[in-house]
Amino acid sequence: MSIFTELNFLALLTLVVNLLLAMMVIFLERKDPSSTWAWILVLFFIPVVGFILYLMFGRKLRRKHLFRWEGRKDIGIDNLISYQKAAIQEDTFEFRINNAENYKDLIYMHLKTNNAVLTQDNHVKIFDDGANKFEALLNDIETAKDHIHIQYYIFRFDDLGTRIINALIKKAKQGVKIRFLYDEMGSRNVKKRHFKELLAVGGEVEVFFPSIFPLINPRLNFRNHRKIVVIDGRIGYIGGFNIGDEYLGLYKKFGYWRDTHLRIEGSAVHPLQTRFLLDWNQACEQQKMGYSDRYFPAIPEKGDAGLQIVSSGPDSDWEQIKIGYLKLINMAQKYIYIQTPYFIPDVSFLDAIKIAALSGIDVRIMIPNKPDHMFVYWATYSYVGQLLSAGAKVYIYEKGFIHAKTIVIDDEASTVGTANIDVRSFSLNFEVNAFIYDCTISHQLAEIFEKDIFDCTELTLEIYQNRSNLIKFKESISRLLTPIL
Is the pTM of this model over 0.70? Predict the structure, then answer.
């Protein structure tokens, strides 16, 4: 067989493989049409490499039995969910929070799609600075009596990470049970062997979706982006901060790191604990956790804030956090404040924001002035620019890097968590957010947003329309890639 015949055969084989794969993308995977077209273009213009990229980043996640925890029935959560849904439908539910009843449609939706129980006895402290957040976390670790469950997308063994680990080792030596869960992709420079001192004193460490072999991970595209800490079943942390020196503003590349995190005391800690246990048991092959009263102690009322802990991920078709965002936006009467490091919305989200702005609602969006992911940044810039003509206001944070994931409406309801406004957070990452029904907390979050405006430059329609051709080119290329970013 001549070399030309061999090349022709390989070309034909490549074409056939690409056709078969394209058919699989179209007919079997049933992706979003824009994502389908993006992958078809990748397959045909980069035949071999495109096939590898698709295997790594394009396939759907096998969902069957991904998260299982038999302890659900022991804590009576299913009965509570059924009661709350029925009571809201029958208009007999007792809302102890002044404004919560105004959001009963949203509360019911989260109950139905995510089994997110409403708790109404919470005290919430807001952190918008890393130094304050980690000082509080270290103090709570120091006073822990029974167990510490800690889960982060990014963990670094730098100065801050070492302080956290040393504090956990100290508590483990005192008999406190330590469980530490991290995501392999987010913490890609971390290996289990790095935790040998913690493991030696009885701590347990697990990795979410680890590689089968070095550099080979068929679930690489599905990452656990959640940040959860539960201490003694009584104190919970949720929000945007990971663990690393950059979150203290110590990296010159980013400068000051502006993020938002919550410390929760009250019954909302129990669903946060449940989320951790589900994630832990997915990652753990041997020492899976069952129900124990120690993880769900009786909690005295700490406050009067209403919370739902809502999680989402590729294990569900509902995109629970995204539809929660949409419902919040649609319910706004006065204003919508959004802070996000990435703004790459799908059509439904973009239309919801446009409709709100065109309806006269004060829509304000705050994004960073510098990229940590280049294509994502320019795609974000293009989308916020598109909203200016609808009347939305866009602010570029100049003090450092803004990483907060918050939405506040009308001084009444808000959400803080891990989910960005992009395709990855909506459908590919495992995320968790607190939806908050409380005027005081929502007002505090609005005040933080308004204070941050002083560290921003406003992106006006005139400035955006006069952007350079180079920026327009970067935006165009980046938007083409948004379905697969």
Answer: yes
